[in-house]
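Record type: monomer structure entry
Structure origin: computed from sequence
Chain ID: A
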Amino acid sequence: MTSTLAVLSLAVVAACSACAPLDVGSNLLWSTDHESGTLNDWSSAPGGGVFEDSVNSPVQVVAGPAHSGRFSLELSDLAASDTEGPGVYRDLANAPDAYYSAWFYLPQTYVTRSKWTIEQFLNLASTNPVVYGHDFELALRALPGGQVILFVFSHDPDYLQAPLTDPPALVPTGEWFQVETYFRPRSDETGELLVWLNDRLVYDIEDRRTLGQGDLVWTLSSQAEDVTPTPTLYIDDAAISLSQVTTHGKLHE
């Protein structure tokens, strides 16, 4: 049960707040810290890779700002629409109820005139996410005062954008922040999507249909039509786990 897992995880974090980082251990299904200096982890079994349209929108592992180690994933440039742009993905057939975690870094403040999608949960019969559409997005938007907010958007016309959380889910610039999502894939009205920002539960979306006819595909991306200046987004320490990773998580398979 989601609530039980969350309570147990928070209890462990509280007990070990002064200890070494938690070891996710055998609950970890897949992870990458990009320390190989390559994108190989994204294409490892059972499948994944780089968006096809990323040929003109660079995706690379760089020795730049990194959450851990020396390397991180850099997504730069934008395509001409908010459904294309640089990104990576994992294709998950028979996906379990799981936690999806990644760390993000915005090197500066940006002005957004369209939603800026950084994470997606897609329902596809193909490993080309860009072509076939998507169901849930986690996206960024700049507020008039320059602050950047994280929000959830559903492509189900009955729901669309989820109500903004109160207080707002503000993300920082110039420092790493973690977004962790619990995704319960269901083809009936029992699906669930929970989103934590730096260990604070900011979205709790329940009783939804979250899975279509195809595989579940998880993506990390930088997709927007109008963001200035042209953005660069860094991503590191991405993981899929049966237990909550939290900001204290230590990624070991």
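Annotation 1: The helical segments are 2-15, 40-43, 129-132.
Annotation 2: The longest strand covers residues 232-241.
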